[in-house]
Design goal:
Layout lengths: L4 H7 L2 E5 L8 H11 L3 E5 L5 E2 L2 E2 L13 E4 L19 E4 L10 E4 L2 E4 L2
Parallel strand pairs: 1-2, 1-5, 5-6
Antiparallel strand pairs: 3-4, 7-8
């Protein structure tokens, strides 16, 4: 039996945010800030920043040295991460948010990335 989005989120502690933003009016800024306030460890992914949400920013998922439980993607599908970080992230789940999603409602597949979206 597959888990619901709520169950997956409740089981997650470390969330990478691709497209993290310093702009609190963008979803890439407000959603991670809210998750962090609720106790999640946020790992921002953004090629144009050094620190966001008080955390070190990585340029890509491949640079993240620790295990990631969930990836939130705030980028257009064409710009979504192209890999799972070289296998080091052990990524199992991801969320591509509305306005940034692909036409595939349950899976984002292509350019080397395949994971169930919640």
């Amino acid at each position: 039996m597959s888990k619901t989005g709520k169950e997956i989120l409740e089981a997650s502690t470390v969330i990478a945010v691709v497209g993290a933003s310093r702009d609190p009016y963008k979803a890439g800024g407000s959603v991670p800030a809210g998750l962090q306030q609720r106790g999640f460890r946020i790992i921002p992914i953004n090629p144009h920043a050094d620190t966001l949400f008080g955390e070190r920013v990585y340029r890509s998922l491949a640079e993240v040295p620790e295990k990631i439980d969930l990836v939130d993607v705030f980028r257009p599908a064409a710009d979504a991460p192209a890999d799972r970080g070289g296998g080091r992230t052990r990524l199992r789940r991801g969320r591509v948010h509305r306005g940034h999603d692909s036409p595939l409602p349950n899976h984002k597949e292509g350019r080397g990335l395949t994971f169930p979206c919640i």
